[in-house]
Design goal:
GO biological process, one term: phosphorelay signal transduction system
Organism: Lentzea guizhouensis
Shape: globular
Helix content: 55-70%
CATH class of the largest domain: Mainly Alpha
CATH architecture of the largest domain: Alpha Horseshoe
Keywords: DNA-binding, TPR repeat, Transcription, Transcription regulation
Family: Belongs to the AfsR/DnrI/RedD regulatory family.
Number of helices: 41
Structural class: alpha/beta
Distance between the termini: 38 Å
Number of domains: 6
CATH superfamily of the largest domain: Tetratricopeptide repeat domain
Strand order of the largest sheet: 9-10-11-8-12
Protein name: OmpR/PhoB-type domain-containing protein
Radius of gyration: 32 Å
Length: about 900
C-alpha cells in the first residue's frame, strides 16, 4: 500500500509477467518510455534488493551512452513520480524498489508454483494441476514494451523458462488426471510460440494419443520435426524420436518419464546386482548433518551407474534440487575440474546471474551453501580426484545428501560413509550376462557363462560389452563367446578388442575418430564433421555404437565415451589412422566449432564484425535461428568449446584457436564466464605468438585485457593494452590502435591515473577523427573534456566540448546535445565568462524542457542560477534555485539540500 497526502492508503499492483504495468486502485500509472520501463522491470525482477548502476546499465543498453549514470538518474526520477518513496537510493549499492507482500504478480506466480510442486510431492495431483493453472493465469502476455539490454534479455529468458516449466508441470498433471483437452489446448499454443522446445511437443503427443487421437499425435511429431530440421538443420532429439516410435506402437509412457527438469544423468534399464550397496546408500542418514556417501573402486567397476541408480531412488526424498557434475578426476584428456568452475555452473543452475557470482572460491562456496540451505537437495559428484576438489562442493545443510564417486579413498572428508565397490561377484556377472544376452542362452550353458565372467575379470563394463556381442550374434552359443574371448586375451582390453574388431569398417572408423573429439561428449553434428559424414549418417553410427555399449548417453542426443573406452579409442586412432588423416579429422571438427560459434556470435551481437577462414567443404555448421537459440547452443556446448580452443593450440592450429576464442567473446561476456574467457584467450594469445601472427596476438591482447579489467586485475589489463598498442603501432594498424587506447584509458581511469587516461583518450580521438569515426570521436571528446573539467583545466575542456557538440548536432541527438550544453556552461563558469555560461545553459534548459527531462531541467536550473549569480543577478539566481529545489524534491534527489543551501 502507498499512503496518499491525506493519510489514506492505496492498493498498488506491480505487473511484470507480460506487458509492464503499475496500477494504483485499478488505475494504470504513467511509466515513461521504453528505457525507463526497462529500469523498472529490472528493479521489479529484483524487488526489495539493491540493483547496481552497472547492472541497470547492462539491463537497459546494448551500447551504453558515455554517462549512463545521468540517464539512469533521469529514469529513476521519472519512476519516482509514479511509485513515490518506494524507489529508494542505496548509496554505493544502486537503487531498490520496495514491494510488499501481495503486490507483485511474479511473487504470486512463484508461490503458486511452489505450492503446486508440494502438492505433487504429496501425491495430490488434482490440487497441483489447479495451482499450476492459477500460477499460469498470472501471466498476461510477453514483455515487449521495454528496450532491453543483454542482462535484461537474459532475465527474460530465465523468466520464460520458469513459465514454460510451469506449463509442462501443469500439462503432466492434467494428463495424469485425464483432462486431455486442457493439456492439449495449452500445449498447442505453447508449442506454436516455442517450436524448438521439444518437451512441449512430446507432452502434446502423449495427450493426443491418450485421448484417442493417435493420428494427430503423429502429425504433431511431423510438425515438431519440420521446425527442428528447418531451423536447426538437425533431427529431433532421441527422446522425441523414441516417443514417436512408441506412439506408432500404441504404447505411450507416463508423462512423468518425459521430465526434462532434473540434472541427474539417465538411469539404465540393464543395471544389475549391487543390492547391498544400494541399500546402504539409500538408508536414511543422521538428521543433524549433511549426508555424504563416497563410492570408491577401480575404473570400469560401475561406480557411476551405481551412483546414478541410487540418486534416482533418492529423488523422492530430495525433490527440491538435484545437481550433477563430472569432476574429471582421472580423465587422460582433461585436467580435473576446478571446484570454482563447478560452483559457477551450480550457482547458475540455482538461479544466480553470472554477474552476481563472486570471483573467489570461498565466496562461491559460501553462496552455494546459502542457496541450498533448507532445501532437500541431492548432489552427485562423479569421478572425484580427491578431498580438496570435493570439499568446496559440499552443502552445509542437514537437508542435503551428497553422492561421490572416485577411484581413491575419500576418508579425509568429515562424516563420509565409504562404499567400496569391487568387481562383480560371479553370480552378478552371470546375471548381467543373462539380462543382456538372454536368460535362456545363459541357462543352457551356465559353466560357459561363468567362464565368460572370468575372462572379463568380472569387470562390469567388460561383461556388458561381451554380453552385447553375444546378444547381437543369435547363432553363437555362450561357448562360442568363450572361444572368442580366449583368443582375444583376458580382461577389459580383450573384450574391447572383441567388440571393436567385430564392428563394420565404417563403425570402427567413427569409434576410433571419437578419440580425437574435443571435450566431454559428442553430438551427431560434431561427429559428422569429425568423420566427414552427414549428420544423419553420423547419428545412425552413434546409435549403433550406443547399442553396442561402446558409448554411453547421459543426455538425449549427446554421446559419451567411458574413460577406459576413450583411452582405447585414442590408441586405435593413433594405430589405424595416418597423421594426415588424423590432422584432417581434427581440423574438420574444429572448423565445425569455429563456424557454428560464428553463427551464434552474430546472433548474440549483430554489430560486431568477426573474421574467420572458410570451412572445409565437408563441414556443415549449424544454422542458429535467433538470439535464444544461439545462447542455448553455447550453454550446452560450453565445455567442448573451451576444450576445442585448447586442442587447437596443442595441435598447432593457431588460427582455429584464436578465431574460436574471438567468436566466444560475446557469449562469455553475456554469461559472465570470466574464468573461461581469461583461460581461452590466454591460450589463444600463446598460440598466436607461437605462430608469429602479430595481428592475432594484438586482437587477443585486447580481449584478454578487457576480461582482466572486468575482474579488476587492472595492472595486468594495462600491460595487455600496452603490448597490443606496441604491436598495432609496429604493423601500422591505426584502426585497432583506436580501441586499444580507449580501453587503456578506461583502465587508467579505474586506477585513478587520470593524466595517463587523458593522454590515451586524446590519441584515440585523434585516430577516430582521422578515420572518420564520428560517434567514437564524440564519445572520446566528451570523456576528455569531463576529465579536464574535473581537474579544473577549463581552458583544456572547452574546445573538446565544443567539438563534441558540433558532432552531436550533426547526428541530431538532442539529449546528448543538452548534456553537452550544460557541461559547456559549467566550463564557462569556471573560466568566469558568465554571459557565455548563461547562454549555453539557457539552451540546455530549453532542450531539457522540450524533451521532458526533469532531472536535466533541475541540473541546468541550478547551473543557470550559479551563472546568473556570477553576473550579479542574485534575484534571477534565487528564482532558478527555487525551481531547481522543487524539481529535485519531486524527483526525490538528495541534491535538493545542496541547492537549497545556496538560498542562504
Amino acid at each position: 500500500m502507498v499512503r496518499d497526502h491525506g493519510g489514506g492508503r492505496f492498493r498498488v499492483e506491480f505487473l511484470v509477467l507480460g506487458s509492464l504495468a503499475v496500477r494504483r486502485d485499478q488505475t494504470p500509472l504513467e511509466l515513461g518510455g521504453p528505457r525507463q520501463r526497462a529500469v523498472l522491470t529490472m528493479l521489479l525482477l529484483h524487488a526489495n534488493e539493491a540493483v547496481s548502476v552497472a547492472q541497470l546499465t547492462e539491463a537497459v543498453w546494448d551500447s551504453p551512452p558515455v554517462s549512463p549514470e545521468s540517464n539512469l538518474r533521469t529514469y529513476v526520477a521519472g519512476l519516482r513520480r509514479a511509485v513515490g518513496d518506494r524507489l529508494v537510493t542505496r548509496p554505493g549499492h544502486g537503487y531498490q524498489l520496495v514491494v510488499r507482500p501481495g503486490e507483485l504478480d511474479l511473487d504470486a506466480f512463484d508461490r503458486l508454483v511452489r505450492q503446486g510442486e508440494k502438492a505433487l510431492a504429496d501425491n495430490d495431483t488434482e490440487a497441483a494441476a489447479e495451482l499450476f493453472a492459477l500460477a499460469l493465469g498470472k501471466w498476461h502476455g510477453t514483455p515487449s514494451d521495454v528496450t532491453a539490454g543483454p542482462l535484461l534479455r537474459a532475465e527474460f529468458t530465465r523468466l520464460q523458462e520458469r513459465r514454460l516449466a510451469a506449463v509442462e508441470k501443469f500439462a503432466k498433471a492434467a494428463i495424469d488426471l485425464g483432462r486431455f483437452d486442457d493439456a492439449i489446448d495449452r500445449l498447442r499454443r505453447e508449442s506454436a510460440q516455442h517450436p524448438l522446445r521439444e518437451e512441449l511437443w512430446a507432452l502434446l503427443m502423449v495427450a493426443l494419443d491418450r485421448s484417442g487421437r493417435r493420428g494427430e499425435a503423429l502429425e504433431t511429431y511431423a510438425a515438431a520435426r519440420r521446425h527442428v530440421v528447418e531451423q536447426l538443420g538437425v533431427e529431433p532429439g532421441a527422446r522425441l524420436r523414441q516417443l514417436h516410435q512408441v506412439v506408432l506402437e500404441s504404447r505411450v509412457p507416463s508423462p512423468a518419464a518425459l521430465s526434462a527438469h532434473r540434472q541427474l544423468p539417465m538411469d539404465i534399464a540393464e543395471f544389475t546386482g549391487r543390492e547391498s550397496e544400494l541399500r546402504r546408500l539409500c538408508e536414511p542418514g543422521p538428521q543433524s548433518t549433511v549426508v555424504i556417501s563416497a563410492i570408491e573402486g577401480m575404473a570400469g567397476v560401475g561406480k557411476t551407474k551405481l551412483a546414478v541408480r541410487a540418486a534416482h531412488r533418492l529423488v523422492a526424498r530430495f525433490p527440491d534440487v538435484q545437481l550433477w557434475a563430472d569432476l574429471h578426476g582421472f580423465d587422460a584428456d582433461e585436467l580435473p575440474a576446478d571446484p570454482a568452475a563447478v560452483l559457477e555452473s551450480f550457482l547458475r543452475l540455482l538461479g544466480v546471474p553470472g554477474a552476481q557470482i563472486p570471483e573467489s572460491l570461498a565466496e562461491r562456496a559460501a553462496l552455494y551453501r546459502d542457496r541450498l540451505a533448507g532445501k532437500r537437495a541431492l548432489v552427485l559428484l562423479d569421478n572425484a580426484a580427491g578431498e580438496d576438489q570435493v570439499r568446496p562442493l559440499l552443502p552445509g545443510s542437514s537437508t542435503c545428501l551428497v553422492l561421490i564417486t572416485s577411484r581413491r579413498s575419500l576418508l579425509g572428508l568429515d562424516g563420509v560413509k565409504s562404499v567400496f565397490l569391487d568387481v562383480f561377484t560371479p553370480g552378478e556377472a552371470v546375471a548381467l550376462l543373462a539380462r543382456i544376452a538372454g536368460a535362456d542362452r545363459v541357462n543352457a550353458d551356465r559353466e560357459a557363462a561363468v567362464r565368460v565372467a572370468e575372462l572379463c575379470g568380472h569387470l562390469p563394463i567388460a561383461v556388458a560389452l561381451a554380453a552385447k556381442r553375444l546378444a547381437r550374434r543369435p547363432q553363437w552359443t555362450v561357448s562360442d563367446l568363450v572361444g572368442q574371448l580366449e583368443r582375444g586375451g583376458l580382461g577389459a582390453r580383450g573384450v574391447f578388442d572383441l567388440s571393436y574388431q567385430a564392428l563394420p569398417d565404417h563403425q570402427r572408423r567413427l569409434f576410433r575418430l571419437l578419440g580425437l573429439h574435443p571435450g566431454e561428449d559428442v553430438t551427431a553434428e560434431s561427429a559428422a564433421a569429425l568423420a566427414g559424414l552427414t549428420a544423419y549418417e553420423a547419428e545412425d553410427l552413434l546409435e549403433t555404437l550406443l547399442d553396442e555399449h561402446l558409448l554411453q548417453q547421459h543426455t538425449p542426443g549427446r554421446y559419451v565415451l567411458h574413460d577406459l573406452l576413450r583411452a582405447y579409442a585414442a590408441e586405435q586412432v593413433m594405430a589405424a589412422e595416418p597423421p594426415p588423416a588424423r590432422a584432417t579429422a581434427l581440423r574438420r571438427v574444429l572448423d565445425w566449432y569455429v563456424h557454428t560459434s560464428w553463427n551464434s556470435a552474430v546472433r548474440l551481437n549483430p554489430q560486431r564484425k568477426l573474421e574467420i577462414d572458410t570451412a572445409d567443404p565437408a563441414v556443415h555448421p549449424l544454422a542458429v535461428a535467433d538470439h535464444d537459440a544461439a545462447l542455448l547452443w553455447c550453454d550446452t556446448e560450453r565445455a567442448n568449446l573451451v576444450a576445442a580452443v585448447r586442442d587447437a593450440a596443442e595441435h598447432g592450429l593457431a588460427q582455429h584457436c584464436w578465431q574460436l576464442a574471438q567468436c566466444l567473446w560475446d557469449f562469455f561476456n553475456l554469461r559472465k564466464h570470466w574464468s573461461d574467457w581469461i583461460d581461452t584467450h590466454g591460450v589463444a594469445l600463446a598460440a598466436a605468438r607461437a605462430a608469429g601472427d602479430r595481428t592475432a596476438e594484438g586482437r587477443m591482447l585486447i580481449t584478454l585485457g578487457i576480461a582482466l579489467r572486468e575482474v579488476r586485475r587492472h595492472d595486468e589489463a594495462i600491460e595487455c593494452c600496452h603490448q597490443a598498442l606496441a604491436i598495432f603501432r609496429a604493423i601500422g594498424d591505426r584502426t585497432r590502435q583506436e580501441p586499444v587506447l580507449n580501453n587503456l584509458g578506461i583502465a587508467y581511469m579505474a586506477t585513478g591515473r587520470l593524466d595517463e587516461a587523458l593522454a590515451c583518450y586524446e590519441q584515440s580521438a585523434e585516430i577516430a577523427r582521422d578515420l572518420g569515426h564520428q560517434h567514437t570521436e564524440a564519445v572520446l571528446l566528451n570523456n576528455i573534456a569531463l576529465l579536464h573539467a574535473d581537474a579544473g583545466r577549463f581552458d583544456e575542456a572547452l574546445p573538446r566540448y565544443l567539438r563534441a557538440l558540433e558532432i552531436r548536432q550533426e547526428v541530431r541527438d538532442p539529449y546528448s546535445e543538452a548534456i553537452l550544453l550544460n557541461n559547456i556552461g559549467e566550463v564557462y563558469r569556471g573560466l568566469l565568462d558568465f554571459p557565455q555560461a548563461v547562454a549555453h545553459v539557457d539552451r540546455a534548459l530549453e532542450t531539457f524542457r522540450r524533451i521532458g527531462d526533469l532531472y536535466g531541467q533541475a541540473e541546468s536550473l541550478d547551473n543557470l542560477g550559479l551563472a546568473l549569480d556570477g553576473l550579479g543577478d542574485r534575484r534571477g539566481a534565487e528564482k532558478c534555485w527555487l525551481e531547481s529545489v522543487t524539481l529535485f524534491e519531486e524527483l526525490g534527489e538528495p541534491k535538493a539540500d545542496e541547492v537549497r543551501a545556496r538560498l542562504g
